Amino acid sequence: MFKQMKQAARDAGTLRTLCESAEAIARQEGLSAPAAEHFVEAALALPDGAAKRVFARLGLDGAGFSAALSEQEREALRAVGVDGVVVEQALGKGTPLPLASGLYEAAPSGQVVVQELARLRQRGVTGPLDGAQVMKVVAEMGHGSAVRALRAMGVGPEAVVGAADAEIADEAARHR
Amino acid sequence: MTDTPKTIDPKNDPEQALASVVALRRMADQLEQQAVTEALRRGWSWTQIANALGVSKQAAHKRLSGLMAHREK
Fold first, then answer.
1. What total of structural domains would you count in chain B?
2. pLDDT band at A91 (very low <50, low <70, confident <90, very high)
3. How far, CA to CA in Å, does A133 sit from each of A2, A52, A120, B19, B69?
4. In this structure, is residue B55 part of a structural domain?
5. What confidence score (pLDDT) does residue A174 get?
6. Which of A1, A116, A154, B36 fits a 20 to 30 Å CA distance from A37?
7. SS3 B45
8. Which domain of life is it from (chain A) (predicted)?
9. Phi, psi of B69, rounded to the nearest 5 degrees
10. What domain range includes position B68?
11. How is residue B6 annotated by DSSP?
């Protein structure tokens, strides 16, 4: 019982760190609310290192995710004939916004991530909330900017879910 | 912009079309933020900005007033 309470408190702290970090990343890009891709970037910055290990299991460096995000956006614009200087000037160069005050607000895809992470125990997860769980939740969404960036890095969402599951299982074994 | 814009067919490739919609929307948002920031710097009122954007003053202020707060810091 005490162990469960301790785990719940730790998870709440991790979720709070993720939300604050994702919001800071989004607002630095001039976006008002964090989306799923910002939670991946926030997960990569977590001290647990689990998201980085998920990337490593796929033979990738998590540090390349941000560049992949820009590349998929560049490609999506190129597909409709928007190219060149105007795109390079706009990519990731929104006016940074100050941190929001009041109730926490995420973009719709970010809301899905937060909701799924908040109900981890209902999903049957027993290990700690860490970056691998974030990677799994985002990959399970199957579509969106984060998944397109992962595809641009050469991996499909199914492979990411598999790598995240392997990391989660190893982490659970370490906590037994 | 390129001289010869490509075309995409949403019926054949909705994934690609939706990705382009997201990217265009984000690019438009960034362009809007930059233009509004500059307009505010030049002393435009929210009524003038709203008229230029074709939205209500309330809508413009609600969506973009964070830029002014940031600029005043």
1. 1
2. low
3. 23, 12, 9, 25, 36
4. yes
5. 80
6. B36
7. coil
8. Bacteria
9. -60, -40
10. 44-73
11. -
